[in-house]
Amino acid sequence: MLGKERCEQVLKETLQAARPADEAEVLVMTNESGLTRFAENSIHQNVVERNAQAFVRVVLGKKLGHASTNRVDADGLRQMIERALQIARLSEDNPDFGGLPDDGRPVPVIDVFRPSTERYTPRRRAEAVARLIGACRGKGLRASGAFETGLREFGVANSKGIFRYQPATTADFNTVVMSDDSSGVANASALDVHELDVDALAAEAIDKAERSRYPIDLPAGDYPVVLEEYAVANLVGFLGYLGFNGTAFREGRSFLNEKRGQLVAAPAVSIWDDGLDPRGLAQPFDFEGVPKQRVDLIKAGVAGDPVWDSYNARLAGVPNTGHALPAPNSFGPIPLNVFMAPGPTPKADLAKGIARGVWVTRFHYVNPLQPKKTLLTGMTRDGTFLIENGQVTRGVKNMRFTASILDALSRVEAVGSSTRCSINSWGSTSVPALRVGSFAFSGVTQF
Question: Which residues constitute the domain of residue 272?
Answer without folding.
Answer: 215-444
